Amino acid sequence: MAKNKNVNRVISNNKFDPNDWRSIINVAEDSVMLLDNKFRIINANSATADFLGRAIDEIIGKRCYKLFHNTDKVPHYCAFKRARRTKKREEKELYISEKKIWISVALDPVLNRNGNVVKAVHFIRDITSRKEKENKMRVCLSENQTLLKEVHHRVKNNLQIISSLINLQARKLKHEKSLQEAFRESQTRIRAIALVHEGLYQRENFISIDFRKYVQKLVSNLFFSYEASRKNIEFKSKINNIFLESDMAMSCGLIINELVSNSLKYAFLNAKKGCVEINFFMDKKNDSFSLIVEDDGCGFSEGLNLKETNSLGLRIVKTLTRQLGGSIGLDCERGSKFTVILKNASRTLNAVNQKEI
């Protein structure tokens, strides 16, 4: 409903001509009325008469709440009642059960020179058609969300089935340790991807996931797979409360999967205990995300060159980092410490927020 440009105008009662006013408002398709401060209708257009199914003469002088709400008292939700207090436009949408229609009510108070409410211009528009369209859209959106939720659920289940099949196949290779290890590595990668779909399934918008919860589940699965607890290896983390888009979360998850798996396999071979730590935070000064995966194990050999390594896991890490437009560094002074820097953090978060609106 369009805003009235003469809202809260100051008028002089003896110069206000209701007859001229009616000839103007009869052009409007919406119901338009002029009320006095006693809630009486002192003027109305033909659309109001049509809406009420009465002649204009039967409307003038009647109290609006008696005609529209069939009550002898001013209802608590009355727009004019609120406008007399706020001295501002009041708007409300109502369902009229007798007529089975939705209406939009808007009321603009008219003030005198002292700032007191002396009259009000009252508008009513039939918005039934709009409400029906909105309801159809809500039903359609709900159906699409249900369908998308089911897709993520089935993808997650299918990935778990694939993981179980790989596990069964690996059990047959009791004397082929290298092949067993290859199967286990594939299994952990599949689980990392499945966890993203699980996170999306648990969210209503299917756009982003809680990265902290995702990492905790991911690492918990890895510790179980590599029996880390039995080896007295503990896990620490400092992860900001950040929701990441599914593609980015999956890439970061796979990076973490490879680096943590590497630590659990090789860093603590001769150690009685150890620690794996993951930090993920936003550096506002440099507008970047920092992902740090470190352990206090034996570290890498001094001659390791990340650019030329033949390790499949590290090659996956490098490829994913490059795809994210980031950079990676390795510090072996105390154990091993991988630092992945991902730029344009604010743009990444803004993209998530805009899609969730």
Order of helices and strands: HEEHHHHEEEHHEHEEHEEHEEH
State the helicity in percent bands.
40-55%
| Spatial ordering of strands, largest sheet | 2-1-5-4-3
**Global structural class:** alpha+beta
Written account of the structure:
- By secondary structure, the protein is α+β, with helices and mostly antiparallel strands.
- The chain is 46% helix and 23% strand.
- The chain starts with 17 loop residues before the first helix and ends with a helix.
- It has a five-stranded antiparallel beta sheet, with helices on both faces. A five-stranded mixed beta sheet has the order 7-9-10-12-11, with helices on one face. Strands 6-8 form a two-stranded antiparallel ribbon.
- It has helices at 18-25, 46-52, 56-59, 64-69, 79-86, 128-171, 177-202, 211-225, 246-267, 312-323, 345-356; strands at residues 31-36, 41-44, 90-96, 101-111, 117-126, 208-210, 233-239, 243-245, 274-283, 288-295, 327-331, 336-343.
- The protein has three domains: 13-126, Beta-Lactamase (2-Layer Sandwich), CATH 3.30.450; 129-202; 227-357, Heat Shock Protein 90, CATH 3.30.565.10.
